[in-house]
Amino acid sequence: MSDTARPPRTYTPQEQIVPLMMVRAMFGLVLLVLVIVSAAVWTGRPTTSTPPESAVTHSRVLYLGGDMSGAATVRAEDGTLIADLSPEEGGFVSGVWRVLQRERTKHRVALDGPVELMRHENGRFTVSDPSTGWRADLMGFGRDNARAFAKLLAE
């Protein structure tokens, strides 16, 4: 290029990508949330919006298997096959299996351990992993996903 080419661009305050006021507001919001959470912890405020506790009416020990395609297998405690789900049918069950694999890897326990599926008096379903202490209330994932596990409890 010739010497008449444009000079290199330099930063000018008018070209801010994120306005300084927005950056200050974001940091202020983070600090505010930190103060609120700290105050709740220090004062011993009880947790809210947690699933209601209810007695277990029915439970079953299951062994879940799955793969990344969404296919899943479910076996009873004695090893009999309860369900062999295709990727279209087993997406949520396979998703729970992947979460279990991650939790078990994190806790360095056997990857093929059992889970306990429980139905409660209030109609909610829970999956619990005794080897890691992980537990999930299935109603939090929607009625259809909870129904996928309800079918396993019925079979």
What labels describe this entry?
34% helix, alpha+beta, 155 residues
Layout of secondary structure:
Blueprint: H1 20-42, E1 56-66, E2 72-76, E3 81-85, H2 91-107, E4 115-120, E5 125-128, E6 135-137, H3 143-154
Antiparallel strand pairs: 1-2, 1-4, 2-3, 4-5, 5-6
What would you say this structure looks like, in words?
It contains three helices and six strands. A hairpin with a 4-residue loop joins β4 and β5 (about 125-130). By secondary structure, the protein is an alpha+beta fold. The N and C termini lie far apart (about 75 Å). Helix content is about 35%, strand content about 20%. It has helices at about 20-40, 90-105, 145-155; strands at about 55-65, 70-75, 80-85, 115-120, 125-130, 135.
Order of helices and strands: HEEEHEEEH
Assembly type of the chains comes to single chain
Low-confidence stretches: none
Q: Kindly provide the radius of gyration, computed on alpha-carbon positions and rounded to a whole number of angstroms.
A: 25 Å
Strand residue percentage: 15-25%
Question: Termini separation (Å)?
Answer: 77 Å
Structural class: alpha+beta
Q: Percent of residues in helical segments?
A: 25-40%
So how many helices?
3
Apparent shape:
elongated
Mean pLDDT: 83
User: Tell me about the biggest sheet?
Assistant: 6 strands, antiparallel
Number of strands: 6
Strand order of the largest sheet: 3-2-1-4-5-6
Give the structure's gist in a few sentences:
The chain is an alpha+beta fold and 155 residues long. The protein is 34% helix and 22% strand. A six-stranded antiparallel beta sheet has the order 3-2-1-4-5-6.
